Amino acid sequence: MPVEKIQIRRDYVLQYMVNNDYSLNQLALEIGVSPATLSRVLNGERRPGQLVIGKMLHYFNLKFEDLFYYDFVDKSQ
Question: Model-level pTM?
Fold first, then answer.
């Protein structure tokens, strides 16, 4: 049975960090999340919750589909 999993467009965030010379800690502080949370979301270790999604969309001034996407995971295997 496929389950939707929200994923971040990691390449966008990493390129933003390079372009703006931001460390992960600096970006997390700007967004308003902990560095550990941002790291885990970017590495796919944690799904972003509503609060993190909202803060990131607000910070980047993007629509959901521009920063996140749905990945379908088969839970039956």
Answer: 0.86
Tokens of 11: 């390449």
d(CA 65, CA 29): 23
Cα(4)–Cα(19) distance, integer angstroms: 31
Distance, in Å, from the CA atom of 5 to the CA atom of 25, rounded to the nearest integer, reads 25
Is the CB of residue 31 less than 8 Å from the CB of residue 72? no
CA distance 34 to 40: 10
Q: Residue 35 sits in a domain of what CATH number?
A: 1.10.260.40
Q: Are 22 and 15 in contact (CB under 8 A)?
A: no
The 10s digit of each residue's pLDDT in 35-49 is 999 999 999 999 999
The token pair that represents 36 in the structure block: 């550990």
Provide the domain count of the chain: 1
